[in-house]
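Exercise (ungraded).
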Amino acid sequence: MKGLRLSSFGLRGFAGESLTPEVVIDFAAAFGTFVDGGPVLVGRDTRLSSPMVRDSVAAGLLAAGCDVLDLGVCPAPLLQFSVPRRRAAGAIAISGGHMRAGWNALTLISADGGFLDPVSGEAVLDIYHARDFRRADWRNLGTAAEVGDFAAPYFDALEALLDAAAIRRAKLTVAIDVVNGAGCRFLEPFAQRLGFRLVAVNAEESGYMARDPEPRPRNARQVASVMPLVQAHAGFATSSDLGRVSLVAEDRETASEEYTFPLVADHVLAAAPGTVVANCCTTRMVDDVAAQHRCRVVKAPVGQAYVMAALSDEQGAIGGEGNGSVAVPRFSRAFDGLLAIGLVLEDLAQRGGTLSGRLRELPRYHIVKRQVYGEPRRCYRALELLQREDDWQAGAALDRTDGLRADWDDGWVHVRASRTEPLVRVLSEARQRPQAEGRAADLCRRLEREL
Amino acid sequence: MKEFLKVGISGVRGVVGATFTPQLAAAFARAFGAFVGRGGVVVGRDTRPSGDLIERAVTAGLQSVGCQPLLAGIVPTPTVGILVRDLGARGGIAITASHNPAPWNALKFMGRDGLFLDRAHAEELFDIYHQGQFDLVAEEDLPAAEDVADPTAGHFGRVCAYVDAAAIRRRAPRVAVDACNGVGALHTRRFLEQLGCDVALCHDMPTGDFEREPEPLPEHLGALSALVTSRRCDVGFAQDPDGDRLAIVDEHGRPLGEDLTVAFAVQAVLDRHQRGPVAIHLSTSRAVQDVAEKRGAAVTRTRIGEINVVTSMLALGAPVGGEGNGGVIVPAVHPGRDSFVGMALVLELLAREGRTVSQLRQAVPRYALLKDKVRCRPEQVPEALRLLRRRHEGGKVNLLDGVFVEFADAWVHARPSNTEPVIRLSAEAPIREAAARLLQEARDTLAPALGEQKR
């Protein structure tokens, strides 16, 4: 059984098992209750279960008295961008994001376009569990309307933010793989606005996951394979909701998704220095890049909501995570793959040179990501036991912002129970690959013993 | 009325914002999908504001078990049944609380024959619902919902083919319609114009805010009467919100009472179309019986409930029948109540007889049919009905549905309601006083069983 996972950011489940219409209606009704019947935007990706989930979401919202503005197929960043501009009370994004086929999820968006903050999210969960829903009588039910013209304001703002003229002059050829996801229909206007030659890969709205949708080097092989044929200057592989992106250089080197955030941060900070927000398991490249620009780095717990909250608190210039996520608060309150691509292209256009050369300029680290499977209950216990074992953490500074992080001069490890899957994530980064591998392997062995 | 939920042979019914929720609709749709098996299921609805959200919940529930929703949108309830057969679907769900007030809504389930589920099948469906075990389909097998193009074309075409449409067109009657802001607001003008009528409408906004009481009873038809007289119409028709029931107003603006609708339909079918027996439910006026018997047709009285009438009609091979509440059933068109076939038959009668509605009404015997209800807790029902039965021991007593006692030219009927904690009483006699007396006698007879009346 692929179970239901509820958190203060939303709900995720597996079609045909845990993701039933009633659960989705309940959750949407809880959010509709939380926003007290205000208007709510709804966008979805192209997964085969998304229309069913959309109808369930709309039913729950309408019954709670919320007007539903249905954006149809809409990537999460465009949905989030649209919420404050439509003066909506919030939004629900229906998207499996980086998860494999079969999964789908609801993500709750607040009126400012950011993920719902954890305190509000807890309130929604309480309503959900108590089933204490707002129920409009027949005269006060919400009405549903389709909204079709949401992309133009987004691209207007993107064009204004970026140096589109420079990108156009650079005459770039760019390959982008959007996993047949919600981004498909937005690639052409994106390319037209920024004036590059687009080579779209996996860009049919079939909902068929032509690859694992998580942006990782191994999942960027398809886009890498077409790049020599079209002599592309850069390649990108996004998640199916356009939230995350990983880079492929012109020499077909599929860069770790960890490079996206530091590269974009380097570019943004060079033009306008400011505070950087990263999560507590993001590559040290970000710290090094920020130091070069004499900027501060603030560490937040893992997750878009926490990074955004810290960006607000610190009035940060840029935020992101090592999984290929970047947010620029003066543009929107979303992790935005299109924005990240646009900033990388702007960087290439303004500096000249190649993407592979640009990546080599960044500080070099090796990061290893591992997973150890176990029941959620036991995962947390395993983390506690691990913390008590002294021998592996000699000479390290420990941090428990989120999970367990140990820092040495030459690297760090981070161990955390997944909020979305029954497993513990282990990250290890070091200057030298064997060092990173060795630490990860040691921790995995210890965790496997506990689990 | 208490805002309760009613799960029974006529579907799942409740008040929106209280008991009738999208969660419930999705769960029942899923159970229905599991009941009929993977394939298409036609979904139609009336104009109630809650229709959209309930349709979405039903759509999701059906898809989750692998049924493809075939969305007909806002259509008359009989259209849903007709589409089930025309599209070869597995079943149908009509989202409508029919003549109930606007705060209500309901799911009504139809099998692959386009008929409402009978008692045995309804019980099987509820068993599946309560057992709560479903084979949910995997993502790659989820069927996409599909809109049905021009959903009423088949229905209206079938009605127009059954009647003598040419005769109606030659007469080109002027017709007033009260659509009750229901499905008729979207479809009735087109239907009548197809028959060459000059159409005037009132309550013709498809808002689901009914403006008049949704049951087409004579006392609710003031607007229609005014329209008939001001526009000098030949006839006025009043539909209920989902277009299955029909009442008639004559050319002077006088409501005839819904029983006459079925009487006219019986006359039209037996005189011009098909011979055969007639089935009506127990509380239907004797006027219908008289019209049928005058034409040599045997009359069978059935239990209350549309599916009971339909089942009897199909078993008997009855070409026409229905319910005294204005529900005309002509199985050759569709084995379910249909105001559109009712309108067409009345118009045909006018055209062929060359007479006015009031003249046609004169030819039908007059009765007074009175209705009442008394509070009765469920556990008091058996004793109350027993008292009435004993009172008429040796008389002509029919126990099919409560107690129905027939006299030479009158009858009295007592039965427990399917929807409220009451016993419904009705009595009919040639004159009002006699009917009132029968009702009073029945009330007196029941009284000893109904001690501790609370009201």
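Further reading is listed at the end of the chapter. For now, observe: Chain A is about 40% helix and 20% strand. Chain A touches chain B through 36 residues (CB under 8 Å).
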